[in-house]
Amino acid sequence: MPFARTPTAHTELLLPAYAAAIFLLELITAALLFSLYSVQRSRALLFLGSGYLFSALLVPAWVLSFPGVFSAFGIDLGLQATAAIAAARRLGFPLFVLAYALAPRRAPARESARLGIGGAVLATSAGAGLILALVFSNRDALPPFMLDARQVSVLWSFVPPLAVGLYLAGIALLLTRHRSQLDIWICLVLFSLIIELLLISYLGGATRLSVGWWAGRLYGLVAASIVLLVLLSESTLVYARLARTIATERRTRQNRLTAMEALSASIAHEINQPLASMTTNADAALRWLAKSEPRLDKANDALSRIVADGHRASAIVAGIRSMFTTGSQERAELDLAALVTGAVRAAHAEAVHEFIDIDTDVDKSLPCVIGNAVQLNHVLRNLLENAIDAVRGTGQWPRRIVVRAHRDASGDVHVRVEDNGPGISDAVAERLFDPFVSTKPGGMGMGLMFCRTVIEAHGGRIGAGANHPHGAIFHFSLPAAILPAVEERERAR
Fold it and tell me: Entry's SUPFAM superfamilies (predicted)?
């Protein structure tokens, strides 16, 4: 640097701003390190924070004693005070870093965080105050570091090598003993301080306010900012992760509450159907028994249906519970054609009373599927009951429902329930399978949500669309079971 030793004019006016920046940066860094100590309780952080505090406390006295900076205010603390304070900062800070590097990391401090931080602040402030008291009370006896306001003496030439040696020792200890993320950044700080010393004491010719001297000061400003920026960025990341964690926990709690609401509503919705059937059959049995000539056979049939509905309600509760309990779903190879036929047969009794025809188009050679029989049967019953409710509320004649079950081009088993009711309104078409969405008066909106949950849990797909010229189609697909080659050939015969 050919201009490194070129002196500058009137740049001492910038020193108060530089000193204020250094003071604030190091003081804030010390505060953040003490805060980190209160969480991690590592004495190493206490030493490092004390080092930054020690360096910061010496800065105001350094700039106040700098020759020519505050001379207009009558402040003249002698020629050697500034250099003595600078030497204390140069040699004191790396000593704190060495203590940080040598301090045990795993053994937490036993004293309270407030007591530890308070003791460190008091001890560091007392040490810095003692040094300043010795400097200002013995101004005439201070080592002659300066020849004049800008040129250093030969004695000062011992300070930079000693400081660089301490910096290098700190780097070596940090890289060989622990090598945490903070250790790497402290090594970068020490390396920046070495560059600062090289610029000030060697390239700048150790001449105050020269171009090289100011370049070194800029490196010092960067060195003072490194740990602060790292701590601020880490704090921001920690708070961001904390905010995301809290948001995730809130969503998890909300999802659990929603699942509990869905479970309760599903049970209430699904149990209501067999209960209504049981009530109807009980009334029928009472009427058969109340006749002048009781029809015991009819009453017996009604009571048998009540027993069947009771078992059905129990199976529904078990099926719904298994949906919300991880690892409790009992699955087996199922004949979906038989399930469809059974569901149609069960719904036929109600459809007859409403003059509704239920036709079937079921491929008897459908491959088996792997699933829970209770849950899939309930899906079929739910879709059929919805179709009956839809057709019942329309004036369209004839009232007709068609249930189809075939294997589609992809090899999946495809089931369709078609009706000629009023169809699906555009207002709810996209939200039809969401919880608490219903088109029926008094409906809870849980049936189709239950169907979607079951079908998707079985690896299938469910959807709805319009039936032409009017009505609706609800359909779902399930993957076919992978059968052995021999069984597949037997099924094909």
Answer: ATPase domain of HSP90 chaperone/DNA topoisomerase II/histidine kinase, Homodimeric domain of signal transducing histidine kinase
Give the integer Cα–Cα distance in Å for 146 and 243: 55
Q: What is the CA radius of gyration of the chain?
A: 43
- Pair 101, 171 in one domain: yes
344, amino acid identity: V
Does a structural domain hold residue 189? yes
Residue at 253 is within a domain = no
Let me know whether 317 and 337 are in one domain. Answer: no
Q: Which of 65-74, 354-363, 433-442 has the lowest mean pLDDT?
A: 433-442
| Per-residue model confidence (pLDDT) at position 477 | 92
pLDDT in tens, 310-347: 887 887 677 666 655 544 456 788 888 999 998 888 88
My answer on whether 184 and 37 are in the same domain is yes
Per-residue 3-state assignment (H helix, E strand, C coil) for 50-92? HHHHHHHHHHHHHHHCCCCCCHHHCCCCCCCHHHHHHHHHHHH
pLDDT at residue 266, rounded to an integer: 62
Q: Which amino acid is at 68?
A: G
Buried b (16+ CB within 10 A) or exposed e, 229-259: ebbeeeeeeeeeeeeeeeeeeeeeeeeeeee
- 239 lies in the same domain as 276: no
pLDDT the model gives residue 172? 93
Pairing, β 399-407 against β 413-419: antiparallel
User: What is the rounded average pLDDT of the residues 199-223?
Assistant: 84
Let me know if residue 151 belongs to a domain.
yes
Share of the chain above pLDDT 90, in %: 25
Banded pLDDT at 2 (limits 50, 70, 90) = low
Looking from the CA of 161 toward its CB, the CA atoms found within 13 Å total: 5
Q: Which two tokens stand for residue 80?
A: 């050697």
Model confidence at 475, pLDDT cuts 50, 70, 90, reads: very high
CATH of the domain at 102: 1.20.1070
CB 87 within 8 A of CB 134: no
The answer to whether 376 and 338 have CB atoms below 8 angstroms apart is: no
Residues 317 and 405 reside in one and the same domain: no
In a domain, 447, yes or no: yes
- One domain, residues 208 and 294: no
Q: How far apart are CA 399 and CA 417, in angstroms?
A: 14
Range of the domain at 131: 11-247
Average pLDDT over residues 440-452: 68
Count of structural domains, the chain? 3
